[in-house]
Write a structure and sequence with these properties.
alpha/beta; Metallo-beta-lactamase, Chain A; seven-stranded mixed sheet; 8 helices; globular
Length: about 260
């Protein structure tokens, strides 16, 4: 299985508008970060997209992605779903809508905000057939597990995907480690985790919390994502322990 980090940045990206790089070296290409999302690809070539970030079109073009088998959403915050219209092109040539999945709460909010995507409009076909996760356990050949994670006053869905005997956990936008998260992510081959900054934050994991999750889950490999402008790639790479890597846009991890 292969995991591609389509985007690795926080909600404002790096740099922020105005060429605000913060502590990030502007001469290091891995510090240029679009909004977070990942794509998983099985050995059979089946692809799952997690989140439709604000920068989805740019990400799909940069990584040569022209087809997916399903899309999952972690939650409905703008940086995770407002690129949803770019799924229209991925709908072309399909016999039906793209299968989509989210928690019941997230699905309801997406339907109200983007009704035309899920119901068609003015003669245009439905782009995504959205369903609540409920008892979903298999999608496009991937085994799927999930849990709800605290995200400040909101919640975000954490996912575990398995294919070909390998496993990837995706835990972005969480602010507390719960026992259910540790259970779902236990002994995962790759953990891609929220890591906004070094200092604690009310709605996101900081570096210490991200490393704690990796340790408690006994993750074999860990990649940090959702990084803000204080997280310089080279600097943080020199601080993290063996088995932990700083994520960057376009990063590919083959398991």
């Amino acid at each position: 299985m292969k995991c591609i980090l389509l985007g690795s940045g926080t909600s404002t990206g790096v740099p922020r508008i105005g060429e605000d790089w913060g502590e990030c070296d502007p001469n290091e290409p891995k510090n240029r970060r679009t909004r977070v999302s990942i794509l998983l690809e099985s050995d059979e070539g089946r692809r799952l997209l997690v989140d439709t970030s604000t920068d989805l079109r740019q990400q799909l073009l940069a990584n040569g992605i022209d087809a997916i088998d399903a899309v999952f959403w972690t939650h409905d915050h703008a940086d995770h779903c407002h690129g949803i219209d770019d799924l229209r092109v991925l709908r072309y040539g399909r016999g039906g809508p793209i299968p989509g999945y989210a928690s019941a709460v997230t699905a309801d909010r997406l339907r109200r905000r983007f009704d035309y995507v899920f119901a068609g409009q003015h003669g245009y076909p439905t782009i995504v057939s959205l369903e609540a996760l409920d008892r979903l356990r298999l999608c496009a050949g991937f085994a799927v597990e999930w849990c709800q994670m605290p995200h400040g006053p909101a919640v975000s869905t954490g996912f575990r995907f398995e294919s070909g005997g390998k496993s990837v956990a995706y835990a972005t936008d969480f602010s507390e480690i719960r026992a259910e998260m540790v259970d779902v992510f236990a002994d995962v081959d790759l953990l891609v985790t929220d890591c906004l900054r070094r200092d604690p934050h009310p709605t996101h994991a900081h570096l210490g919390m991200a490393l704690e999750l990796a340790e408690r889950c006994r993750a074999r490999r860990t990649v940090l994502t959702h990084l803000d402008k204080s997280m310089d790639y080279a600097t943080i790479s020199g601080e993290v322990p063996t088995g932990v890597a700083v994520g960057y846009d376009g990063m590919e991890i083959v398991l």
